[in-house]
Amino acid sequence: MQTALADFIRNTPEGREADAILRKCVHCGFCTATCPTYQLLGDELDGPRGRIYLMKQVLEGKEVTRSTQLHLDRCLTCRNCETTCPSGVQYGRLVDIGRKIVDDHVVRPAGERLVRTALKEGLTSFAFAPAMALGQLVRPLLPGSLKAKVPARQAAGAWPARTHDKKVLMLEGCVQPSMAPNINTATARVLDALGIETLRPKAAGCCGAIRYHLNDQEGGLEDARRNIDAWWPYVKDAEAEGLVAIVVNASGCGLQVREYAHMLARDPAYAKKAERISALAKDPAELLPAFAAELKQALPRPAEGRVVFHPPCTLQHGLKVRGAVESLLASLGATVPPVGESHFCCGSAGTYSVMQPELATQLRDRRLGHLEATKPDAILSANIGCITHLASGTGTRVLHWIEWLDERLAAR
Ligand code: SF4
Ligand code: SF4
To answer: Is the pLDDT of residue 145 over 80?
Structure first.
């Protein structure tokens, strides 16, 4: 697609990157067929091709309107379109650039600004844990919409006491330890069963995705630098430390850490370190398939059960991991039936379910329809946001697949 960038962006790194991405798009429209918001709304401007066209206009200096902002807001950043695109258009990068410019030009209504600030500061703050604990205490009294965002209190289970020569660092995350503390301890227990010790440097915190994708890109970079500083003492001499990976068990956070290399590429103090960190970051779905034989041996009996897997968009379209969890669980003895529209977003999408509740609920129910049609004992996923969002619409148990595996390893 030919573009003529406006003066304000032409000779900037963002301008050059956006121009290169736009040039790859041949306007074929294949991506619209798999775009969840286009499927729901049927409007070209609520599909990737239309949004790319809107961003092209913005970058060419045409008028930026509230309507442009709304069409970009409705995008889930699920990157389903990237998987479909035959020309390799990196839509996710383009929309980050486009949204920033649009927000610099169009002032949001006061209510929206308030919600976005509350999410950005609240979810990543130290006050989130006590607020979640209070919410869980009064959960039975909460109205339905709020109750859906507050999962029932969960016991974390024990952190393994054994030490091993092989080690991983774990990113514990910002909201996950308060909402579903068992995911991190279950990950550590599964790795312990494989002879791997999990370390969790306390100075690491939010991966930065919340702030970065709410257009506080500088705030997101600060989060990234803080995590790199926390991990670097272990990473700089990884071999001597026995370090095999940085495990990130929320695929949304894992994708963000994988992108540190790109985000910090122009920061001379952090570029090299960020490359190393991104290369070490692994989702459990990338790490554990290599240990399938050891897992099978560690199981007291085959991991029987009928489960379905909802692959988060950040796992399948962002990290490009497809089918690995389903294959691993099936190889361990589980029945894992195929699920319709498995490329589709569940509507959670970071803070999307708060900011676009109607679309998020429609997508959740559509996804649950496919998942529950298989009559599973449990729905498994790989990201705290998807797990909480799906659980709010079903009576079927929803949990991280590593928790399910941990339960099978502990079964006597
Ligand atoms: S599929 Fe790719 S090339 Fe075709 S319109 Fe969509 S983004 Fe452009
Ligand atoms: S990221 Fe997802 S919602 Fe956004 S345009 Fe692409 S497919 Fe559609």
So the answer is: no
Q: Specify the pairing of strand 378-381 against strand 307-309.
A: parallel
Mutate to test the pocket of ligand 2, among 70, 91, 99, 352 (most ligand atoms within 8 A of CB): 91
**Do the beta carbons of residue 319 and residue 255 sit within 8 Å?**
yes
**Which region holds residue 264: left if phi is over 0, alpha if psi is between -120 and 50, else beta?**
alpha
76: tokens are 């889930």
Q: What is the pTM of this model?
A: 0.94
* Tens of pLDDT, residues 56-84: 999 999 999 999 999 999 999 999 999 99
User: What is the rounded CA–CA span in Å between residue 288 and residue 196?
Assistant: 11
Which residue owns the Cα nearest ligand 2 atom 5? 48
7-105 has which CATH code?
Answer: 1.10.1060.10
Residue intervals of the chain classified under CATH 3.40.50.1860 are: 299-410
Confidence band of 2 (pLDDT split at 50, 70, 90): confident
Kindly state the tokens that stand for 245.
Answer: 């990976």
Please state at what angle helix 324-331 crosses helix 401-410, rounded to 10 degrees: 10
